[in-house]
Specification:
heterodimer, A: alpha/beta, Rossmann fold, 5-stranded parallel beta sheet, 9 helices, 11% strand, B: alpha/beta, TIM Barrel
Chain lengths: 213, 340
């Protein structure tokens, strides 16, 4: 069993989408649990990709193709996953790029990686007004809010949203993580965020850490 | 006593310097000094120039960046991209236009003298030049070919096309390189001195050194050869991590290399300081925006200490000065350069 799962993660790493599709079908036919195929095959491959990106061996183009590959092929597993794990039990995460900011490359990577890790991710897109973040937070009561800002002119929105969460009295119910090029750990602390992700990989590992708290 | 232009030329010629030239990358932030509204400045060369001149006169740095922001956004607009115009921020591209090779035919190199937004920037330059005279060096952002290609395709598509559709990337960069050269030529004719090709998408924060060599280097080289032939001073600005590609950046023919805050100036000086002028690299966000004058002064002094020995250094920020940066902080940078 582990051979097929290893082959899947290898194929993700070498960005071979067709091969991944074939292997996923094969694994399902062989009766392997869909959630294992996801975690030991797809997610593992994406995680190794992420590690190689973090240490400078691979770069954004590889990460993006890998993320797209997983996003496309996870559909093969989805019908089988819902059977094995109740949809409602998945942790909810809302994520978006702040108002006035149209950058979403990193944010999209985080979306795919969190989904591949089993979270229910509500991707609000880019240029998301503060009021929309708050509205969604009230409506869905997620465990985590992720905000991305790639310009020094828009990063201030991250602070504003956190202030608004406090005003609305829901700050304590939800963890907040921030990221983006001009963002630093110092900024995250200053604005009262719970965590900071220097890149998509750290964002995902920090998100998982926060959710498990 | 050297004029400001002489100070810059001396730095570019790698001559020993007593006075360190200070040129923070400050453009749209100057609107906060004059109360000129962002959207108004974008439509009026007089207002844009007024703000940029006010910044220069108030703070006293050694060169003026003419233009409202790194030019790839206005060029993308001139080439047909859909834009978003926030009330208090620089415009940006909301949708790209190149998906496949057929789309390339739709894209033309705009004429800077007739394309409204480009023409506005040329007029701003002329007004500034007239006001400050010939002794003040004027820096001009020119759109980097790879970054502009990213705006035309959508940067995430560009990232994937680098692996999946390399020919399309090359075809697009051939056009964007021509757009850059055409704009640089116009800026030189209108009185600009230093042509700063800004190409943030080419940094190793995004692509590998090998990808830089394949998809960025040849076009940068072509542009800089052109600028040098036209007697302009070519400068290369790639913010983000460029430590692995310093040598290659110097190989492009740029005579100034602008470095971002995460690159070690000390190491860069050792590697390429003997053949190019280095400019940088105070952290615009953490230090200049969020710090106080004392911290800015300290960090600026360290940059000078690491890089100025033997000449060939311009003190600057790692990238554009952000909105809401306290004026006193930028003044502290200038003081650091003067008090050597």
């Amino acid at each position: 069993m582990t051979d097929i799962l290893n082959e899947i993660s290898e194929a993700v790493l070498s960005l071979e989408e067709e091969k991944v599709r074939e292997l996923l079908e094969k694994a399902l036919k062989n009766g392997i649990e869909a959630s294992s195929i996801l975690s030991e095959g797809l997610t593992k491959g994406l995680r190794i990709l992420g590690d190689k990106f973090s240490c400078g061996e691979l770069f954004i183009p590889h990460m993006m193709i890998g993320a797209e590959l997983v996003q496309n092929t996870i559909k093969i597993l989805e019908p089988h996953l819902i059977k094995s794990k109740e949809k409602d039990k998945r942790e909810k995460v809302i994520i978006g790029t702040v108002e006035g900011d149209l950058h979403d490359l990193g944010k999209n990577l985080v979306v795919t990686m969190l989904r591949a890790s089993g979270f229910e991710v509500i991707d609000m897109g880019r240029d998301v007004p503060n009021t929309e973040f708050i509205k969604k937070a009230r409506e869905l009561r997620p465990c985590l809010l992720c905000m991305s800002a790639l310009m020094t002119t828009t990063m201030i929105r991250q602070r504003e949203v956190i202030e608004k969460l406090k005003e609305e009295g829901i700050r304590n119910e939800i963890k907040v993580i921030v990221g983006g090029a001009p963002i630093s750990k110092q900024w995250a602390m200053e604005i009262g965020a719970d965590a900071y992700g220097e890149d998509a990989i750290e964002a995902v590992s920090e998100s998982k850490r926060l959710i498990s708290l | 006593m050297l004029t400001r232009l002489e100070k810059i030329k001396s730095a570019v010629s790698l001559k020993s310097q007593k006075d360190i030239p200070v040129v923070p990358q400050i453009t749209y932030t100057t609107h906060q000094l004059t109360g000129v509204k962002m959207l108004d400045a974008l439509k009026d060369a007089g207002k844009m120039a007024q703000a940029l001149i006010a910044g220069f006169e108030e703070i006293g740095y050694d060169g003026i960046y003419s233009g409202w922001e790194s030019s790839f956004n206005i060029m993308a607009e001139a080439m047909g991209c859909e834009m978003k115009y926030p009330e208090n921020d620089v415009p940006c591209v909301s949708r790209g236009i190149i998906k496949n090779s057929e789309d390339l035919e739709k894209v033309k190199v705009p004429d800077p003298y007739t394309s409204p937004r480009l023409l506005l920037h040329l007029e701003t330059l002329k007004i500034i030049r007239k006001h400050v005279g010939l002794d003040v060096p004027i820096f001009n952002y020119i759109p980097g070919p790879l970054t502009l290609a990213g705006l035309l395709m959508g940067t995430d598509s560009l990232m994937m096309n680098i692996i999946k559709k390399p020919d399309l990337v090359h075809s697009t960069c051939r056009i964007t390189a021509r757009a850059a050269m055409s704009y640089a030529e116009a800026k030189l004719s209108c009185g600009g001195d230093i042509m700063v090709v800004a190409d943030p998408t080419a940094s190793c924060s995004l692509i590998s050194p090998k990808m830089f060599e394949t998809f960025s280097f040849p076009y940068l080289k072509e542009i800089f050869t052109f600028i040098s032939k036209k007697d302009g001073i070519p400068s290369l600005h790639i913010c983000g991590n460029t430590t692995p590609i310093l040598d290659k950046m110097a190989d492009t023919g740029a005579r100034i290399i602008e470095l971002d805050h995460m690159v070690s100036l000390k190491d860069a000086k050792k590697k390429i300081g003997h053949r190019v002028c280095i400019q940088g690299n105070v952290d615009p966000s953490k230090v200049l925006l969020m710090g106080d004058p004392e911290e800015v002064y300290k960090v600026s002094k360290k940059c000078i200490e690491d890089t100025a020995e033997g000449g060939g250094f311009i003190l600057s920020t790692g990238c554009e000065v952000p909105l809401n940066t306290p004026v006193e902080n930028v003044k502290a940078m200038v003081r650091a350069g003067r008090e050597t």
